[in-house]
Fold this sequence. Notes:
Shape: globular
Strand order of the largest sheet: 5-6-9-10-12-11
Helix content: 10-25%
Strand content: 25-35%
CATH topology: Purple Acid Phosphatase, chain A, domain 2
Radius of gyration: 15 Å
Number of strands: 13
Structural class: alpha/beta
CATH superfamily: Metallo-dependent phosphatases
CATH class: Alpha Beta
Amino acid sequence: MRILAVADVEDRLLLERLTQRGSVTYDLVISCGDLGMSYLDCVATLANAPLLYVRGNHDVRYENDPHLGGTDLNGRIERIDGLRIAGLEGSLDYRDGIVGYSQGEMRHKAVSLGLRAYLTGGIDVLVTHAPPRGHGDLPDGPHRGFDAFNGLLDWLHPQIMLHGHVHLDYGMIDRERVHPSGTRLVNAFGWYEFEL
């Protein structure tokens, strides 16, 4: 399965690439958050692929106008062509007016999702907005990752975890890394394509 992951910034080069005749095709589009609904709709339409998404910390507008045509992964497990894909939205709560959670709130959400995943055969892909704590995050409050994601990765060992939130243009940020659990971590900032 060929997957296009997007996060955080709308990229005109991606839209141009998707409109080119003979461009690569995708089986699935996954958004890791902080993207406008019209942009996501455009990407999924041009890619001619279903859309799965989690909300980023700035995606409060989704509450009043949910994206039509996509599937919200928050706290859910979706099966697509044999892949089990789960998601958790938001970032560490650092101010009012964002999609944010405390470490404790996210721990509760992660344990709930992890238990369902464990009882139904695990997951292949974990989609989040924020990274796991200590693995692709930053020390400042807004960009600190969630401790609970480390436990989820150690427990379920998905093949890949996709996240956004920490922009690659902030400085020495790795696009890819490997978590101690063996899970491949990918920062989907802008766009990233891969096969599973």
